[in-house]
Specification:
Length: 379
């Protein structure tokens, strides 16, 4: 058949123009439903008609179904002359030995093209059969079988094996049970989207003596954590088992989430202490993330603005303090200097740190004022 140019996860309008009208609701439901740990993509929309216009009569396409941290591809073949009949399904060449039990594909026997969910339910049933097929390969090896059976009771685990009975590699994809709903509102606004984290473990040998482990994060989480490289996974030893390793990784991520929340609370407390001391001088401050605050201050007849910035990892990270002149400019910008050596100890109470910071600013002001006179121009 001829392929129609419809992009991955093609828009509803392009699919609607290309596909047979009876098939459009079925495909749209597959794209919309994300209950299988991800979104199904639709590619390669084409028609079994060999010549002439194909708009509105395309009857075959490929579904890229999320599985084990990647996608498996199944070609779905309807009959444009009889579109109400259930489709044929062709698996990729690497899964040529996958032979699902038709008795377990109840959606085929109960096929009703007028029910938009019928194709998605068929995909769910095929996935269940595919998991059984993968387990039939893995279960031939005692250690891998043990790893899987001790995990699957509490985790929605996907496995993928190379069908080599002598020296297989086995990939485990394990969703991590971390509560991301407790993130502060500002983090969710700055990093929109669904939050998802999973652990991928590749067993290089059936004895599990050598593995490769990595964490998969949704884009929003990658931004929040500063990339998956910031997550240092626990060491794997020959006597390590996934039933112990997975909870350790879960705790690692949950601790990172909890620290970000604690940092937010500490920043808010720090701002409250600043405002209690300098509230009448405040110019502006960030009331969502509590990361930036500025004060208009005066010392010995010289007025200036003090800026304080806090990071997502405050109070461990030192506050960034800078001062700028309200009289002088340099390169058309207000003249400003960073006080990189501002005294700070995260173990002290906020009031004590604030007192030390203000004393340091006063100590640096004569030097700053002279610099303004020497290097700056009047605004």
């Amino acid at each position: 058949g001829r392929v129609v140019d419809v992009s991955v996860c093609g828009s509803s309008s392009s699919l609607g123009r290309s596909l047979h009208p009876l098939l459009v609701p079925l495909v749209e439901e597959c794209q919309r439903n994300d209950t299988i740990n991800g979104t199904i993509a639709v590619t390669g929309v084409k028609s079994s008609k060999l010549d002439g216009p194909t708009e509105g009569i395309c009857d075959r396409f490929t579904l890229a179904v999320p599985y084990c941290g990647t996608h498996i591809k199944w070609e779905i073949l309807f009959d444009r002359l009889h579109p109400s009949l259930p489709p044929d399904i062709i698996c990729s060449s690497e899964d040529e030995s996958f032979d699902p039990d038709l008795d377990n594909l109840k959606s085929l026997a109960e096929w009703d093209v007028n029910k938009p969910t019928c194709l998605f339910h068929l995909v769910e049933e095929l996935l269940a059969e595919y998991r059984k097929y993968q387990y039939s390969i893995l279960s031939a090896h005692q250690r891998l079988d043990f790893e899987y059976t001790t995990l699957k009771e509490n985790n929605n685990v996907d496995i993928h094996c190379t069908p080599d009975l002598h020296q297989p590699t086995a990939k485990f994809h394990i969703p991590l049970n971390v509560d991301f709903s407790i993130f502060p509102v500002y983090l969710k606004k700055e990093n929109p989207g669904d939050y998802y984290a999973a652990l991928t473990v590749l067993f290089k040998t059936p004895t599990a003596s050598k593995i490769e482990a990595s964490v998969l994060l949704s884009p929003g989480l990658e931004r929040i954590f500063g990339g998956k490289e910031t997550i240092k996974l626990p060491k794997w030893n020959e006597d390590t088992y996934l039933m112990d390793y997975v909870p350790a990784v879960n705790k690692l991520l949950q601790d990172k989430v909890d620290y970000l929340i604690q940092s937010f609370v500490k920043r808010k407390e720090y701002f409250a202490s600043l405002l209690s001391v300098l509230g009448q001088a405040v110019l502006e401050y960030d009331t969502e993330s509590y990361k930036k605050i500025a004060f208009l201050l005066e010392f010995q007849g010289f007025s200036f603005i003090a800026h304080i910035k806090l990071s997502d990892y405050f109070p461990k990270d030192i506050p960034l303090v800078s001062i700028s002149s309200i009289y002088h400019k340099l390169d058309e910008q207000p003249l400003q200097v960073n006080l990189n050596t501002s005294p700070y100890n995260h173990q002290l109470e906020p009031d004590e740190n604030i007192r030390k910071t203000m004393n340091y600013i006063q100590h640096m002001l004569p030097q700053f004022r002279e610099m303004c006179k020497s290097n700056g121009n009047f605004l």
